[in-house]
Amino acid sequence: MTMPSTKYQRGDTVMGRWPGSSLYYEVKVLGFDAKSQLYTVIYKDGTELELKEQDIKSSTGFRSRSRSRSRSPARRRSRSRSPARTTRRTSSRTSATAVAVTETTSSSSRESKVKDVLVVKLSSLQQTKAVETNSNNEHERKENQKEDTNESKAKLEAEPEKNQSRYNLRRRKDDGDAKTAETMEQQLQEMEAKQTVSAGAPITALDFGGRIGAYFWLLYLPAFVLFVLLQVDQEDPSLVNFPPPVPSVHDFWDVKALGCVVLWILFQAILYTLPVGKLSEGMPLKSGKRLTYRTNGFFAVVVSALLVAAAVHQGIDLTYIHSHFLQLAVATFLISLVLSVYLYVRSCYAPPDHLALGGNSGNVVYDFFKGRELNPRIKDFDLKFFFEMRPGLIGWCLVNFAMALAEMKKQNLSAPSYAMILVNLFQLLYVVDGLWNEEAILTTMDLMHDGFGFMLAFGDLVWVPFTYTLQALYLVKHPNPLSPLAVTAIVALKLIGFYIFRKSNSQKNRFRRNPSNPELSHLKTIPTATGKSLLVSGWWGVVRHPNYLGDLMMALAWSLPCGFSHLLPWYYMIYFIILLVHRDSRDMSECRRKYGSAWDEYCQTVRYRIIPRVY
């Protein structure tokens, strides 16, 4: 997109004056703001600034001073002249990332080098004042001494592309540095974390209502699970009958139920530790290190299914899960609470570089809820990855199967109803697909950015197996006959949604891990100043979140078998719409801060967020 009525156009290579000096350096024009009459330009070292037109000259016939004996612009800059903004990354919860973003690692021309840098924008004079400490003065004095004693080094520093100040956070290939731009970006996060902690400020904007919100969610989430389990168990689960009758204390607690939950978790932990399946690498941490994960989830679900089949063959009554569902939920909640306390205590002794930015606010309740430690491990046993993918997720399928048996027993059926079969098959397919593609979870927000605390522990152990199974639990007491035509239509909806969900997620994951894959060479992207690219082709050129679209279609297919008699079995659909819209809003804010003008261009290219021509 060109900029009308401007002297310099986007993409032009010109000479830009460094603020506070008389030196000009080669820059590339990124955009023009007609309101402020300022050009956004990027220097070779990745520094992005806004300049007036009088501070820009055509490169034609202009003798560059970048090879003079003076210091590079970042070396010469005065603290009082710090010109731009500091971009901070905001942690957010997600099991799927918002947009397909990948690091651009190949460059063969001067213009493509601009895409391969990591930009730091400084926020304002007042924001940078606290960040730049006396140690920076000492650093500059040391550089002055080096310049006096070694003029050859000063010549190299005079070029912005060789600048080694804190503006230049990425080393180019010709520097011989093995660290990738993505690793350097994570080092930027660590630097910002240390700076904000020393200033006594929170590291990131607090999610979920901040400190007050943390108190609310700690009380609301368990209360909501208790409500739906009691409400759906009524003969008439209509919401007009709220509140449901509260059972006796005995109905809440059963030692046998606690033992069953503990044995199930231990069984899944044993399967996780077996040397079966692939060892997959996670995304780079702040230190540049990559953790390895045993991705044998499909093996675990197959073995679990065989165990359940053997138990039924031996006459074990799995309808115990239905008759003691409330007691199992309470026992699981207590385990998640104990786990959360353990995670918080151990995070107090974790090294600073092991902490997640979003859960290090300094408020005990908020940090307990959000999670402080990013990857808590007992030797090689990754607690967050295990609880995210194993006991609750596979337990979801076990609960659904037990509800099918309970329906047959309660309604004197020789086989489960069509509605129950559809709910079981649809959700089993969803879980098995997730475990078959388990490696993809390593690139999600949950694994990459969110700490492991009460929010994820409760969600993985309680929320998933005891609320996502609400449709099956509802059908045990409230049958809903389906015609063959209705069954066909619901199955078609599910398959279309699953196809969109799987293909878009696979495309995103492959593009993230290997953007140079020849099979993806036809995809179009928008380069950003961070060295990453925004995918605007394939499924990601239709809407910004095609995986969300597929997810919503599948959620609709899960709810339709329950009919329209009551609102309660539609809880998942309603909850999911709210969740995805909220997640989309958080993604928009974070990406706009991170990618700036490139994100605006992306939004103009891909106009719709989730549903084409609707939203």
Helix content: 40-55%
Radius of gyration: 28 Å
The helix count comes to 22
> In oligomeric terms, what are we looking at?
single chain
Cα separation of the termini: 24 Å
Strand order of the largest sheet: 4-3-2-1-5
Q: Number of domains in the coordinates?
A: 3
Give the overall shape, derived from the CA principal axes. Answer: elongated
Which percent band covers the strand fraction?
5-15%
| Biggest sheet layout | 5 strands, antiparallel
Which structural class do you get from the secondary structure elements?
Answer: alpha+beta
- Spans of at least 5 consecutive residues whose pLDDT stays below 50 are 63-185, 187-203
Question: Based on DSSP secondary structure assignment, what is the total number of beta strands?
Answer: 12
The average pLDDT is 76
Summarize the structure in words:
Helix 4 crosses helix 5 and helix 19 runs antiparallel to helix 20. The chain is an alpha+beta fold. The strands form four sheets. It has a five-stranded antiparallel sheet with strand order 4-3-2-1-5, with no helix packed on it. Strands 6-12-11 form a three-stranded antiparallel sheet. A two-stranded antiparallel ribbon has the order 7-8. 49% of the residues lie in helices and 8% in strands. It has 22 helices and twelve strands. It folds into three domains: 152 residues, SH3 type barrels, CATH 2.30.30.140; 158 residues, Four Helix Bundle (Hemerythrin (Met), subunit A) (Up-down Bundle), CATH 1.20.120; 248 residues, no CATH class.
